[in-house]
Design a protein that fits this description.
Layout: H1 18-24, H2 30-50, H3 59-67, H4 70-79, H5 88-104, H6 113-137, H7 140-149, H8 156-167, H9 171-187, E1 211-216, E2 220-226, E3 232-239, H10 250-268, E4 275-279, H11 282-289, H12 294-307, E5 311-313, H13 316-327, E6 334-339, E7 344-350, E8 353-358, H14 363-373, H15 381-395, E9 406-409, H16 413-419, E10 425-427, E11 430-434, H17 435-447, H18 451-458, H19 462-484, E12 489-492, E13 512-516, H20 524-536, E14 540-543, H21 557-569, E15 572-575, H22 585-596, E16 601-603, E17 619-620, H23 622-625
Parallel strand pairs: 1-4, 4-5, 6-9, 9-12, 13-14, 13-15, 15-16, 16-17
Antiparallel strand pairs: 1-2, 2-3, 6-7, 7-8, 10-11, 11-12
């Protein structure tokens, strides 16, 4: 057993992550574990021999399986303490797709059908052997420990709570497991240990975020924290196990990813306000293509029941209007570039339509390539060209035939370029520079210089230094893409996402608002307050309408018809139930109408416990309505 954590174990080391190896060594029953690893090694030898000449004999295969912790994910699936995950075949199918795409990113060619069959066979067998070992040979406490070992990205306090709720283990046994897990994480050499806060060493005090924002896209979802009124910080990106919209479990898989991967992160540090969920407008096209019209309704309601969060399904018109508010008039052949360590997204406007490109190259890819090549800190023109060739190979044909005239680069780019004194000029109310100026300054300031040494002289904070140093990789990546597409103008912006930054995220896509509520017993004054507050936020209140004296127009058949038209055209219905929470029968009918039109619905206060409206997804805005008071 001692050979498990050394090269003496044999081939299994090539497939099992270092973290899982370390964790396996902590299991009590060494005899059973040794038998498992021997069996696994024998099978792996047979597997490589049987499929010699296919992807199984390529280094990229073993490297991907290990570095992306594929075996860990299989173990997690088998031992998950609840049973709400996807069915086994759906899990394996989704995993096979992800592994295939991940390996293709490392190869200059596409995988053959035979290679894909090999990947499926590998995953099927690994899952079967894992089930045999974990479910039939391990005692319950060791199963729980092994599952916890695979959750390296989850905080210990959250893990403890999850295990406590689902495993039924005695507190004494659970305490032993958590102590063992602390030792394993504390001894890890590959990552910083994650610790539970202790009374003797209280964690540094950080204010809770104003709120959270979840962006659900076609292949991944992203979690942002609204840190303050200006700042939006990306916390986490989760790629879907099943990324094919035609798959039966695609939509349910998204719900489960949010429930398991996002909600625990949010509950660990509750926000002052609440969480908003925007669903990419590409889903609108997908739902329109569905033969079953109830698919959209089921997705919205199931998401609400499972997560307690209200979905805002965007349309292309809403997206376009909001982008205009954030970035000004969007002209033909304009690209909005959103880059982070794990994603490079390009939203391209062409022929009055937006087209989303998720490129097969990331900041992490570039950083890893530079590290592997052991390039000196001061790059040469030859090194720059080698890095660009690597990037172009990763992109492949994705951007072929696309011409970009102006590129809006977000994620703090404007502040960075100003601090580095890029030659920005003001035009049409925004800062910009030519592509040639951008490339020339990249070389002078970032590439053909000891950029890290320069940062060390100016910044003593390691986190700030590392954040700024990443602009070097980001700029060579963006420059390569813009060269390929013959870009002419670069427009840096500070927005953290295409939805805005900070507090503005909360009013994205709710520009046009209809306000409903009772006017009985003097409540019209609250309607007036709501309309003023929403207008101050930057929203456009479509209805109700006030006369020249600031009074609500008298209710008539004409005003009621106008109000219903406003609900049909609005981005959100705001229900004014301030003071006692009262909602009249007419307002309930308007809520039904808005819900049938898939409009998000916000209440000033928590609505009464009324079964006739309790099933409708809703947001409560009492904290937002009083934020500046």
């Amino acid at each position: 057993m001692e050979g498990l954590s050394s090269a003496g174990i044999g081939l299994a080391v090539n497939y099992i992550s270092n973290e899982l190896l370390q964790g396996l060594a902590a299991l009590k029953d060494k005899r059973e574990l040794h038998q498992f690893t021997e069996d696994l090694n024998s099978w792996l030898l047979e597997f490589e021999q049987e499929y010699d000449g296919t992807i199984a004999s390529k280094n990229e295969f073993a490297e991907y399986i290990k570095s992306y912790r594929v075996v860990d994910k299989v173990v997690s699936y088998v031992l998950a303490p609840d049973t709400e995950g996807p069915p086994e075949q759906a899990f394996l199918s989704g995993m096979a797709d992800d592994v295939g795409k991940g390996i293709e990113d490392k190869l200059p060619h596409r995988l053959s059908p035979e290679d894909k069959e090999v990947i499926s066979r590998f995953l099927d067998t690994i899952l079967a052997k894992t089930k045999d070992f974990t479910c039939r040979r391990l005692p319950e406490d060791q199963k729980v420990l092994l599952y916890a070992i695979c959750q390296s990205q989850v905080q210990l306090a959250e893990l403890k709570s999850m295990i406590q709720e689902n495993s039924g283990l005695a507190q004494e046994v659970l305490g032993e497991i958590m102590n063992e897990l602390r030792k394993i994480r504390g001894n890890g050499k590959q990552r910083q240990p994650l610790k539970e806060p202790s009374e003797s060493e209280p964690p540094p005090s950080q204010p809770p975020p104003l709120g959270y924002f979840i962006n659900i896209g076609p292949t991944s979802c992203r979690l942002f924290a609204v840190c303050d009124k200006e700042t939006l910080s990306e916390i986490k990106t989760i790629s879907y196990t099943i990324s094919d919209p035609q798959h039966n479990d695609y939509l349910n898989g998204i719900i489960q990813h949010v429930k398991r991967g996002i909600l625990p992160e949010i509950s660990e540090k509750p926000a002052k306000l609440f969480t908003k969920v925007f669903v990419d407008y590409s889903f609108s096209d997908m739902f329109e293509q569905q033969e079953d019209t109830s698919t959209k309704d089921d997705f919205i309601l199931d998401f609400y029941r499972e997560t307690g969060l209200c979905l805002i399904l965007l349309t292309k018109t809403q997206t376009m209007d909001n982008l205009k508010r954030l970035f000004g008039e969007i002209k033909e052949k304009t690209a909005i570039i959103d880059i982070n360590s794990e994603n490079l997204d390009i939203l391209y406007f062409f022929e009055k339509e937006f087209h989303m490109y998720n490129l097969n190259v990331t900041l992490s890819n570039v950083k890893e390539f530079v590290k592997q090549q052991r390039y000196p800190e001061v790059w040469t023109d030859e090194i720059i060209q080698e890095i660009k060739r690597f990037i172009l190979q990763k992109i492949g044909s994705q951007m072929d035939g696309i011409e970009i005239k102006r590129a809006i680069i977000i994620k703090g780019e404007l502040a960075f370029m100003k601090s580095m004194r890029y030659p920005l000029r003001q035009r049409n109310g925004r800062s910009e520079l030519s592509q040639q100026q951008y490339q020339r300054k990249n070389r002078d300031l970032l590439f053909l210089t000891d950029y890290r040494d320069k940062l060390k002289n100016e910044h003593h904070d390691e986190a700030t230094l590392e954040r700024l140093y990443n602009f070097r990789y980001g700029h060579i990546l963006i420059e390569t893409v813009l060269e390929k597409t013959n870009n002419k103008t670069v427009i840096p912006q500070n927005e953290h996402s295409i939805h805005g930054s900070g507090y503005s995220t909360y009013i994205s896509y709710i520009f046009n608002v209809a306000v409903s509520g009772s006017t009985h017993n003097g409540r019209e004054k609250y309607i007036s307050q709501a309309c003023k507050r929403l207008t101050d936020m930057g929203a456009n209140v479509l209805s109700p309408v006030f006369d020249s004296k600031g009074q609500l127009r008298e209710i008539s058949a004409e005003t009621q018809e106008e109000h219903l038209r406003a609900i049909r055209e609005c981005d959100m219905l705001f229900v004014c139930n301030k003071d006692d929470g009262y909602i009249g029968e007419t307002t309930k009918c308007e809520i039904y109408f808005a819900h049938a039109l898939y409009k998000p619905i916000a209440f000033w206060l928590e609505p009464p416990d009324d079964k006739r409206i309790s099933f409708i997804p809703k947001e409560r805005w009492n904290t937002i309505m009083s934020l500046d008071e």
